[in-house]
Amino acid sequence: MEDEDFPFCSDRCRKIDLGKWAMGVYKISSPVLDPEVLEDLGGLGSGSGGESDES
């Protein structure tokens, strides 16, 4: 059973959150450049060498 409002508790909360993003209350400050953090995230956004290991 999947909740269509997940991860929000209701459609109202989903719309409130969307409004905050639209008004600029929430922001993605900058890309993560710390190698240790990138390693913890599984190398997301590393951009090193353009090699892809998708098997």
Describe it.
By secondary structure, the chain is an all-alpha fold. It has helices at residues 11-23, 35-40. It has 2 helices and no strands. The chain is flat and about 40 Å long. The mean pLDDT is 78.
Instruction: Note the run of SSEs as H and E.
Output: HH
Strand content: under 5%
Q: What's the main sheet like? A: none
Number of strands: 0
Secondary structure elements and their pairing?
Layout: H1 11-23, H2 35-40
Task: Offer a quick outline of the entry.
With 55 residues, the protein is mainly α.
Keywords:
55 residues, flat, mainly alpha
